[in-house]
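Posting for a labmate who doesn't have an account.
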Amino acid sequence: MFDMMKMMGKMKEVQAKIKEAQDNLVNIKASGEAGGGMVKATVNGKKEVIELSFDDTLLKPEDKEMLQDLVVAAVNKANAEVEILAKEEMRKSTEGMIPNIPGLDLGGMFNG
């Protein structure tokens, strides 16, 4: 027979695991480069930019527009990479707790 109290307890456990995994996203880091490594951006699992580095040759006023474009490209690459890593971390954190149902995407739950 279906045990509602047991299911509610399991849901609270899943919620706690998801919250813990979301809190740990700050520890996941990914980097992206642009311009052959002339610009590098590092982001965390919460998609916050935590570091930017530039090759010294880019620090000229006449290169400002190119530098801006390279920063955008590097940050976008880092964000794409960290999204993959964050989803994997969330999957590992909730493994065995949430059924693997084809077509069920719980990705929206993981955007803390």
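Reply:
Got it, the structure tokens are right above this. The chain has a mean pLDDT of 81.
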